[in-house]
Structures are given as C-alpha cells and as structure tokens.
Amino acid sequence: MATKKSKSSNKSTKTKSTKSAAKTAEKTELEAVKTKTVEKSTKEKKSCLSGFFARKYEEKESILTIFKDHKFYGALLGEIIGTMLIALILFSLSLMGIASIATYAFAIIAILIAVYAFSGACLNPLVVVGMMASRRMSVIRGIMYIIVEIIGAWFGWLIFNGFHLAGGETAYDIPAMSALAENGFLPIAMIELLGAAIIAFFFARALKYKRSVFTFAAVVAGGLALAVVVGYVISAAFIGANNNFIFNPAVALMMQIFPTAGESFGEILGGICQALSIYAVFPMIGGVIGFYLSDFTSKLSGEE
Q1: Inter-helix orientation angle 125-133/185-206, to 10°
Q2: Which has the least CB within 10 A, 46, 53, 103, 276?
Q3: Torsion of CA 130, 133, 138, 142, to 10 degrees
Q4: Average pLDDT of 9-15?
C-alpha cells in the first residue's frame, strides 16, 4: 500500500511540475512576444523615416552593366519617341487656352500608355531629376534619359517646323516664351517651380499604381493638367500673360528661350543664364521637391 501511495504521489508531483513548466513556458513566450512588439513599436516610432534615402532601383545597375543590357537601348528609344510626341503636342498648342487643356490631357494619357512599357515614361527632365534625387533611378540612367529627351524634343521641333516651312512660311516663332523679358525673372521662375513640383508629386504618386498602366497615365496626366491650369490662372491674373511657362526643360530648350542679340556679349550671356535658370534649373528643383514631398508624406502616413 505504501508503495502504491508513493507511486501515485510521484505521478501527481510530475503532473504538477509538468503543468507548472508549461505555464512558465507560456508566460515566457508571451513576455517574448510583448517585448518584440514593444521593440518593434519603439523602432517604428523612432524611425518613421527610416529608408527615406534608401536605394529603390536595381542594385546591379551601374555604368559597367547598364550598356550591356539591350532593354536599356529600348528604354532610350522609348524616351526619344515619347518626348518627341509631347514636344509636337506642346508646339501645336503653344497658343493654348483653357479650353484645350482637355485635349492636352488626353494626348498625354495616350503617349504615356504607348511608351510606358519601354522606359517607364518619364519624358521630362524634371521628373528624371526627381527620380534620381529620391534614388528611384541610377545616375547613369538618369543622365542618359535627359540627353535623349532633349534629342526627342529636337526631333519634334524639326518635324513641326519642317511642316511650317513647307507651307511657305518663315521659321515658326513659338510665342510661349515671348513674355520673359516683359514679366521679369522671379514671377515666371516661381510658376515653373510650382508647376514642376505639382507634376513631380503626381508622378511619384502614380508610381504606386504602376501595375495599372491606365491608372498611372491618368494620374500623371491629371497632374500635368492641374499644373497647366494653376500656371495659366496665376499668369493671367497676376502677371498679365498666359504664355510664359512650359514645365518641360527639354521642350523649353527648343522654344527659342535664348537671346540672339544684345548690346554686348555679357548681356547675351546673362540672358542665356537667366533663361536656363527659369526653364531648366527651377523646374528641376521643383521636381526634387515634388518627389520628396510624396515620399515624406508616405513615410509619415505609414504607407508601404
């Protein structure tokens, strides 16, 4: 009898110890989970902007590898074609009124959808600079994109002006930049900066919907149309002209922004620097601001 009692007591002791060990293990696991959760939340609170400047393009892409990929040349050709078509649209609508913005937006949607698969449809140096600054694009790819975009805009100018000359007219003097000397440096530069920031912000947001090409194109075109409306209204209301902005440095270089005459070489050089500042430097700064604003807002809101 004593032996049986001792055996039963041993069994109960083992059962109790097993239960207590299980409870201890559960408590340990719960504490570990709580600790991890607290650590994770602490890290999230401390580093809501972690990865803000992280590289977002393919790590293998460099000057040593990019030219070996045939897809890169297809991307460059896509940028040339797309920028050429945009230049044709802008030249054709160089006397653009508020009623033709819808036509412009639909044309931009069509162009973006047509060339998106080739290169991502940047088609604007201010967008490319914003992509490079936010580390969405390598420097070598960005530089090559800007070069071919200028070439594409030049092709668009050749085609447009060729048809104009074929009609027996003189070289077409596009009036979009004609108000520069009259309206001064700062107002037009601020319009270019604001419009470029709007375009870049919408482009950065559109990248979130890049799986749907139509959605991507619609968001980008909407941003372009909004920038044009804002530029048109501000120019007409406060400057007294509506043909002094373009929001595309590659196309602007083709639109006779540089002075061809002056009292001295210094005056001509100063005019060239002023035109480049307004239609190239300020839009590119606006492009960087637009992309950074999008990324900053995304990080603060916790968007993946």
Answers
A1: 60
A2: 46
A3: 40
A4: 53
Could you give the 3-state DSSP secondary structure of residue 179?
coil
Q: What pLDDT is stored for residue 209 in this prediction?
A: 86
> Which residues, 6+ apart, have CB-to-CB distance to 300 below 8 Å?
48, 49
Determine the angle formed by the axes of helices 139-166 and 70-92, rounding to 10 degrees: 40
**Which is more confidently placed, 302 or 284?**
284
Tokens matching residue 261: 């005459």
Task: Give 260's contacts (C-beta < 8 A, 6+ positions apart).
Answer: 268
The pTM of the full predicted model, rounded to 2 decimals, is 0.79
φ/ψ (deg, to 5) at 248: -155, 100
Residues 6+ apart with CB under 8 A from 150: 125, 250, 253
For the chain, give every domain's residue range: 66-301
Binned at pLDDT 50, 70 and 90, residue 271 comes out as confident
Architecture of domain 66-301: Up-down Bundle (1.20)
Q: How far is CA 135 from CA 38, 53, 115, 154, 273, in A?
A: 31, 7, 22, 28, 28
State yes or no: pLDDT of 7 exceeds 50.
Answer: no
Per-residue pLDDT tens for 85-143?
Answer: 999 888 877 655 555 778 888 999 999 999 999 998 999 999 999 999 998 999 999 99
Task: Tally the C-alpha atoms within 13 A of residue 262's C-alpha that lie toward its C-beta.
Answer: 13
* Tokens of residue 97, six digits: 């009124």
